[in-house]
Every structure is written in C-alpha cells, then in structure tokens.
Specification:
Protein name: Methyltransferase
GO biological process, one term: methylation
GO molecular function: methyltransferase activity
Largest sheet: 7 strands, mixed
Helix content: 25-40%
Radius of gyration: 22 Å
CATH class of the largest domain: Alpha Beta
Keywords: Methyltransferase, S-adenosyl-L-methionine, Transferase
CATH architecture of the largest domain: 3-Layer(aba) Sandwich
Shape: elongated
Pfam families: MTS
Structural class: alpha/beta
CATH superfamily of the largest domain: Vaccinia Virus protein VP39
Distance between the termini: 35 Å
C-alpha cells in the first residue's frame, strides 16, 4: 500500500519531511493514511470528487489546483503517464526550493518515471517496497516541459489523464448513433466526461436542460469549454450519490468499471441504481457497456423494461425504461 511505503521511508528509509510549512498532497486517495499526524499541515490537490469529499470529511484542506508555495509535496502516481508527469511538473512549480516525494506502484510506471527523473535531476533517495517505489528530489524547473496542456481532438478540448483523451471512445460513439430524436425536456449524463455524448443531443427537439455529472474535475473543465450552450449545467460530483436537482426524462451513460486497475462491476451497477433514482416514472436510460460486464441483474432490479439494441461487437447498448422505486 502507498501509505506503507511512505511510513517505511519516514521511519527507516531516510526520508525527512520539513518540520515547518505546508505539505501538498497531489492525488493522494481519500482513505490514505497520512504521513504525519498534524492534518493542518496538509493541503490536498485532488481532482477526483469522491476522494476530495473523503479528504474534506477528514478535515484536510482540499482544492482542485495547487496554491503554494509549499514546503514539500508528495505526489501519488496515477495510471496515466501523461497525468503523472503533469503532477510532477505542477508539484515542482508550486514547491520552489522544496522537497518533492514521488510515490507509486510498479504497475503505474514508477520505475520508468524514476529513470526519467534521474536523467533530469539528482535523486536524493529511493526505497522499493510493497510492489512500488518512493523516491525524492528537490524541486526544479527541469520538469517544466511535463506540464499538462490541453489539446484539441476532433474539435473537442481534452486534458492529460481524462478518460478517452485522444478522442471519443467507441462505446460512446455507438450509443450516440442509436439515440432517438425525442429525449424529453431534461436529459442527464452520469459520468459525462469531457462532453462528447451531451454534444450529440443538444440539437434534440424540446430539450430544456442537460445535467452533466462528472467526478473528474479536469474532464469537467474540458466539458465546460466544449459545451457552451446555456441549457447545460455542470456538476462535479460522485454520480452514484449525486442528488439530482430535477428528475430527468432521459439518462445517458457510459459508466466506468474500474477502481484503480481492478475491474469493479459494482461501480457500473451503482450507476444503474443512480440512473433509476434520477428518472421520472416514465423516464428511460440509454447506456453502453462492455459486453462482458454483468449488469443484467441490476437493470432488471431497477427497471421494469429492459431491451438490448443491436450494436458493434464488444459492446451492449441498453434501453431501459420505467424505473422501479426500490425501498431502502
């Protein structure tokens, strides 16, 4: 575990955090054990809404962007290489003259980043433990070229680390192709990402409001740039617990199904339950999922009518209607 590595480094690995000043936590999970007991010394930079909510509930100051200057920064590596590099660059920029600590699993590419770091600066220490590695160095502008920059793909703005940053994913494209013209006055996209699916339905007749719910703040920032229609409302939140401001006629979704590197079908099942809660009694869900995912029981439990629409190999396109109100 990441916190095991950090604590081992502090206890036995030669890592020494500064005694004074604020320590930035870039991307640290909401349930991670803190490296020091004084929570007031930490400022978390967390763009994933569920983790940000957990950190705030623990009394840790949390924002989506660094403020600085910090005395030190601890960077937890994500899966995406470009996002990992962007975090390191941001940590260096926000921690002038301070200590930068990198913590990551081997499956998330920490060894490759260590090698790259050694080619750019002096690595002061490193420890390998718990299927991962921690290494540290002093902040430098040698990583400035790693700063994450937005890019334009097929007319859409995306950013490093967001889902399908290189263009619309095949599942969303397939779902957009089968959506009917009439979707009703209120449409909600749970997990709307950088806005591809909402962009495909803004011209539907009778559309009055479109609610886009997304847990990734960077993806939501892209969506705000991609969707300037005043009927769109943006919500940075956990789609599985989000409280909808109004019941929808239609819910769209291409739900995530990974927690870290592990496939977690329960996540998509929670999205299905959330869709049912957000719909009017006569409302409908339009959903795409990888064919192997076991969503049938959840769909049957939460909707009175479920049908699969023909689609491309590897995907199942689902139209479910008349949500069942599950008693809690």
């Amino acid at each position: 575990m990441a916190h095991d590595r950090l604590h081992f480094c502090l206890d036995q690995g030669g890592l020494i955090l500064p005694e004074d000043g604020t320590i930035a936590l870039f991307g640290m999970p909401g349930d991670a054990l803190l490296p020091l007991n004084d929570r007031a010394r930490f400022h978390a930079i967390q763009t994933f809404a569920p983790d940000a909510q957990r950190l705030r509930a623990r009394g840790i100051a949390t924002e989506t962007r660094p403020e600085g200057p910090y005395a030190a920064a601890i960077v937890t590596l994500p899966r995406a290489r470009d996002l990992a590099q962007a975090r390191i660059a941001a940590a260096c920029a926000a921690t002038p003259g301070g200590l930068i600590v990198i913590d990551g699993a081997k499956t998330d590419g920490v060894d490759a980043l260590l090698k790259a770091a050694k080619s750019r600066t002096q690595v002061l220490g490193q420890v390998s433990k718990a299927h991962g590695r921690v290494f540290w160095f002093m902040a430098t502008d040698a990583f400035a070229d790693w700063a994450g920059a937005a890019k334009t793909v097929d007319g859409f703005t995306t950013r490093p680390g967001v889902f399908s940053a290189d263009g619309p994913d095949a599942g969303s494209v397939a779902l957009a192709a089968v959506l009917p013209q009439k979707l009703g006055g209120i449409v909600t996209d749970l997990g709307g990402g950088w806005g591809y699916l909402p962009a495909q339905v803004l011209d539907r007749p009778g559309l009055e409001a479109l609610h886009l719910v997304e847990a990734d703040f960077d993806a939501l920032t892209c969506a705000r740039e991609n969707l300037t229609d005043p009927r769109v409302r943006f919500f940075w939140d956990d789609a599985t617990t989000w409280e909808c401001p109004a019941l929808a006629d239609t819910v769209l979704m291409n739900p995530p199904f990974h927690t870290g590197r592990k496939a977690d079908p329960a996540l998509g099942q929670a999205f299905i339950a959330a869709a049912a809660r957000c719909l009017k009694p006569s409302g409908a869900l339009w959903m795409v999922a990888n064919r192997h995912l076991p969503y049938e029981d959840a769909l049957a439990r939460h909707f009175r009518k479920v049908e699969e629409i023909p689609g491309p190999p590897g995907f199942k396109l689902i139209h479910a209607s008349h949500p069942a109100r599950i008693r809690r």
